[in-house]
Structures are given as structure tokens and as C-alpha cells.
Amino acid sequence: MIYLVRTLLAGSALLALAACETTPPAPAAPPPAPAPAPVSAETAALYAAQPDGDLTVPAIPAHLLTEDKARQEVDYWTDQPVGTIIVDPHAKRLYQVRPGNKAIRYTVGVGAAGYGFTGEAHIPYQRDWPRWTPTDSMLAENPEYYGPSKGGVDGGLANPMGARALYIHNSGGDTFYRIHGTPDPQSIGTASSAGCIRLFNQDIIHLAGNTDSMTKVVVLTKAQSGQGTTPPAAAQAKQTSGDPA
């Protein structure tokens, strides 16, 4: 009898152990992400609701703003002419060159097409609240989603091109590369499957207002990412020491 009881107890223990192994406790939920620090009143004002012709650009929600993401003047070293737009898609930044080793820095969202062109080009024209038409590849990949827009979408607050679009051409003509606004502010600073280079609507309005026809554009490669953000002497010393760029 004692042997039988011990056998039953051992069997029960094995069953309990097996149950623990096959149904582990659910992992603890990750702690909530810390709320972004509130931005200054000056930064908040840059992204307040903004009238633009017959439309009013909505304010950027406070939880999507940080001081680092906001447009600002920064130190920037380049031999490119003042006014040149330099796109660094891999760093999710766009710079417009200013005098005295300075630039206005914007944070951008980058779609798949934003990595499809590198090198030098220019902007022959821009459009306010441009019309948008999905590409053939978009229609082929997701006909249910893009099919209703096959004939094009007029400019407006819901248009994927946003408040402005800068059209990029080179010696071969239209590169089909665009710098534009977006109705989706949460995409800024991120990568996406569609689109080119997107800015907050408030930022694309600001950039377009300071961009003349035939402005030069330089789109950096992954190897060039971060170029211009380090003083030339420091960058040269880093390369000489053998440190990775």
C-alpha cells in the first residue's frame, strides 16, 4: 500500500510538472513607453493649425512632437550652394543649406521609393495641394486598396501628397522622386512601404516657401548618411584613425 501511494504521488507530481511545461505563464506585459517630453511653446507654435488658402492644416498632435523632430537650424558643413536641399533618407533627415555652415534640418518619413534614387538633381517646379495618382505597381500589389483611386485623387487634407510637392528631375527628366507633405503625421521619422520623402505639412509649406525653381537636390547613399553633420577636421581625423564612419 505504501508503495502504491508513493507511486500515485510521484505520478501526480510528474503530471503537474508536465502541465507547467506545456502551459508556461504568460510573459509580463512590457512597461509602457515613456511619454515624450513636452516641447517648448515656440516649437508647439510651429506645428499649430495653419490656414493655407481655402484649407486649414490641422495641428500636429502633441504626442507626435519632440524638440529633436521639430525643424530647426543646425550646424552643417558642406560645399553645396546655399539653398541646396540634401536628403539623408537613411537618417530620416532633410537639410536645406544656409550660409555660415548652417542648415535648416527637417525630420522626414521615408517610403520605399525614398531609397530608389541617389545623386544630384534639381526641382523645376512645385505644386500646392497636388493631385495624386497611384502608380501601376501600387495598383498591381494592392488593387483593392488603391483601385478606387486609380483615376487620381484631387488635392486636399486627405491626399497622400499633402500640402506641397517638390518634383525632382535630372538630366534624364522626371526621376519620379518627390518631396511632399502627408496627412499622416505619425509616419514622420519612420519608414513605410509607400511614398517618397514625406514631411509634416507645416514643414513642407515652410520648405517650399524657401525653395526656388531649379534648386539643387542631393540625395545621399547609405554610405554617405550623416555627411555634413560633423566638422570637416573632425571627420578627417576620424577617417585617419581608422574609426568607422
Task: Describe this entry's structure for a reader.
With 245 residues, this protein is α+β, with helices and mostly antiparallel strands. The chain has a domain at 70-129 and 162-230: L,D-transpeptidase catalytic domain-like (Beta Barrel), CATH 2.40.440.10. Helix content is 23%, strand content 24%. The chain has helices at 2-22, 41-46, 136-141, 143-146, 201-209, 232-241, and strands at residues 50-52, 55-57, 72-75, 85-88, 93-98, 102-107, 109-110, 119-128, 164-170, 173-180, 197-198, 215-219. The strands form 2 sheets. It has a 10-stranded mixed beta sheet with strand order 3-6-5-4-12-8-9-10-11-7, covered by helices on one side. Strands 1-2 form a two-stranded antiparallel ribbon. The termini are far apart. Residues 1-26 have low confidence and may be disordered.
Brief write-up:
The protein has 245 residues and is an alpha+beta fold.
